[in-house]
Amino acid sequence: MKKTILSITLTALIALMASGCAVSNNQNSSTNASQNTPGKKPIIIQGAMDAETQKLVSELKDSEKISYGGWTFWKGKIDDYPVVVSKTEIGMTNAAAATTLAIEKFNPRAIINQGTSGGHDPSLHKLDIVIGKKSVNFGAFRSEHGDLGKGIKPENWIPMTIEVNTKGEIKEYKEFQGNEELIKIANSVKDTYKSGKIVEGVIGSADEWNRELDRIKWLNTKYGTSTEEMETASAAQVSKAYDVPFLGIRILSNSEVHNEEYDKTSGDNCQDYVLTVVKELIKQSK
User: Fold this and answer.
1) What are 111's strand-pairing partners?
2) What is the chain's Cα-based Rg?
3) Regions in the chain scoring below 50 on pLDDT
4) What are the distances in angstroms from CA 269 to CA 111, 209, 220, 245, 275?
5) Of 45, 96, 201, 276, which has the fewest Cβ atoms less than 10 A away?
6) Is the distance from CB of 81 to CB of 40 less than 8 angstroms?
7) Cα dist. 281→80, 183, 218, 273 in Å?
8) Residue 77's closest CA among 36, 124, 107, 26?
9) Domains of the chain listed by start with CATH number
10) Name one GO cellular component term (predicted).
């Protein structure tokens, strides 16, 4: 069976969109927020937690808070261009739901998923930033048959592809590519970041929090992961289904590989850099 849980979740979420959702400010739930700025599709910036979103929210001019179900969005402007900050909440299903809502309600020109993560690549340290050349769901795998009593051997599990329906055609993806234009723009401003280095890499996503060094090494070897978190690949999958340009940007808040504990400045550092990327994107759009 090739379908993953995320493939099924996406189908359920599309059905949910059709049934309508509640809005906290009493707007009609079917209102497309992008219609408020004709000709300008907004940029969506996602973060899972307050620590990954609130600095961005503070940068919005004329901001308006909107809620759909359990997911919160702040609509406003940066440099006179429409931007929506989305608090996805933590986890793959939350990220898929928030991304589906963002696309259906705001009709964005691009989505940037950003925030904190744990390091996998030994060459990276906390406060380094990974521009997601690729994102991969490392929670999608299968195992070969094993007789009862023979034990569990996760190191032998086989990565699976993700099925995505794009414009009526089912395609299989082992990973999701970051949008080339967005990667180029992110690289063009990386010299502005002074708290660590910025590299292109692979962002790994799953509803997991791995601290076993052998497991981290296995993921880095098997999937080429630079870092791990719980949202990017899920948001990328939904964006692919809708054909919306997408990029993941993740800062290392900690690294088990180097025994580096959580750095409380990491969320703000990532938001500062993403804000610079977004302003450059806006500048090139004018």
Assistant:
1) 44, 246
2) 19
3) 1-9, 11-12, 14-36
4) 19, 22, 24, 24, 10
5) 276
6) yes
7) 13, 11, 36, 12
8) 36
9) 5-26+41-144+153-285 (3.40.50.1580)
10) cytosol
| Separation of alpha carbons 58 and 83, rounded Å | 12
Within 10 Å of residue 148's Cβ, how many Cβ atoms? 5
Give dist(CA 158, CA 142) in Å, integer. 5
* Contact (Cβ atoms closer than 8 angstroms) between residue 133 and residue 200: yes
Token representation of residue 73: 């969005």
CA distances 197 to 59, 192, 269, Å, are 24, 10, 12
CA distance 271 to 52: 7
- Give the CA count within 13 Å in the CB-facing half-sphere of 257: 23
Residue with tokens 């970051």: 178
Containing H/E element for 54?
A: helix 54-59
pLDDT at 285 (0 to 100): 85
**How many other C-beta atoms can be found within 10 angstroms of the C-beta atom of residue 167?**
8
Residue 148 structure tokens: 């009862």
Task: Give the tokens for residue 89.
Answer: 């909440």
Could you give the C-alpha distances from 211 to 118, 127, 133, 256, in angstroms and in order?
Answer: 9, 18, 24, 6
Question: How do beta strands 129-137 and 176-177 pair?
Answer: antiparallel
What CA–CA distances, in Å, run from 22 to 16, 64, 121? Answer: 12, 16, 42
The token pair at 156 is 């032998």
- pLDDT of 50 reads 98
Please tell me the predicted confidence (pLDDT) of residue 261. Answer: 97
| Tokens 């703000």 -> residue | 268
The predicted structure's pLDDT at residue 8: 42
CA distance 29 to 276: 32
The helix (H) or strand (E) run that includes residue 97 is helix 92-106
**Contact status, residue 219 vs residue 225, Cβ threshold 8 Å:** yes
